[in-house]
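Trying the structure run again after the queue cleared.
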Amino acid sequence: MSDIFSEVDEEVRKDKSVELWNKYGKLIIGGSILIVVATASVVGWKNYQLQEAQTQGSQFRDAVTLAGENKFDDAAAQFGMLAKEGSAGYQALASLRQADAYIKSGKGPEALAIYDAIGKNTDIDQEFTALARIMAAFYLLNNSTTEEVRTRLAGLEGPDSIWSATAKELLALADLKDGNIEKARTAFKALSEEAGIPQGIKARAEQVLAALK
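Done. Tokens:
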């Protein structure tokens, strides 16, 4: 009899987890993506200043404009050209933006291939390889298994990682999606209390904790 009650309790917790994921998961991911893209732009701008490549800068801005006009296929093509022919300062950033344009045009698998390629490229700055793995995890959280998410994030949650807080948030979301509510609660509580965590992530963690009560 106790086994039956345990199974029912497990199903109730899973249902609650799915409900919370549907309510908060995509909202959190959306907010996190804005932070990641903004940070990527800063990193890219630093590289642009170092390269002082005016022609490529103009091409990059044109591609950004196309994306802003929802011409994602055209933007992806423009970013792709820079990713192949641009200077070292533009290649990784252009590849990331190309992947983002692919996702917005409904070509997720193509975007994931780019993210994975960047994530494994040892010839570019570590900030970009780590960011590519983070963005791959964002995509996979809604489009694949949480095991795939954790594979992309392995090691990025450590104290030496520039994306540590974001990786921890994604791992907590993966726990929530899996139905591991207590594990997710512990992770979000740590994010809400840990020193050095960006305020946006703290706020989202507190929001989920309130819902989990």
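Residues 49 and 92 are 15 Å apart (CA to CA). Worth checking whether this holds up in the mutant runs.
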